[in-house]
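Researcher: Please predict.
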Amino acid sequence: MITVRAPATSANLGSGFDVFGVALSRPADVITVERAEETTIEVTGAGAQYIPEDPEKNTVGAVVEELDAPARIHIDKGVRPSSGLGSSAASAAGAAVALNRLYDRGLTRSELVSVAAEGEAVVSGVAHSDNVAPALLGGFTVTTADGTRAVSADIPLVVCLPDVALSTRDARRVVPETASMEDLVATVGNAATLSVGMCRSDPDLVGAGMSDPVVTPERARLITGYDAVHDAAFEAGATGVTVSGAGPSVVAACHGGERRPVASAMLDAFADAGIDARAYQTRIGEGAIVLDE
């Protein structure tokens, strides 16, 4: 029996659509696996009632197939589904690490990225790696067709999760198919700024690079109260604010001493819009870790 803690993640970070991702120090899923002749899945925790336990419909079932590693699997969800915090990726990444160890498959964390990404296809229809990469490797990750690169970074973050659901499939439908040259140049510049900020663990540079004129405005329209939450976070000291992944979570970069006031301001802004929410005062953290075996 092996137990793994797999972190929530925030993808895109505004200017890095389908490319950037970070592991969060909290919240996280805990996945326990045990050898079995046939795969069974039990899910408890946040939003468990909305997650199918049928292996053919669960992100973890695809990981089992990729590794040919049948098991009894228990997933304790700390990352709510449809949150924009990589819920399915946390489960897939945790299962990949646990099953790789349980069956001694000998794959590296980098090699497990493509395995866990197949689990994402079950949920979103696309085997994308921008969430599973940081969930496995930790830190700040950049995923391209050539693979994934990861660097450690120490950036304080606040993630505010409203009590509404927004599916990845729905959020992908509003992504524009084209962009102007002006918007393209702005996005590349912002992405470069954010990357330098991550390498330097500089919250000001990271925040300055989170702006995105193409994807974020379209997704923000799907989140009730987003504009007010965005403005309130900046007024409270955030250095950058954007939609986390597909949403509805909103992520803010800040200096360490500003996390509490930023979190409070974001919660108040959602409340003013009639939306209950919870805030995580978190930071960029490590990837999936083995807790027990």
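Model: The first strand starts at residue 2 and ends at 11.
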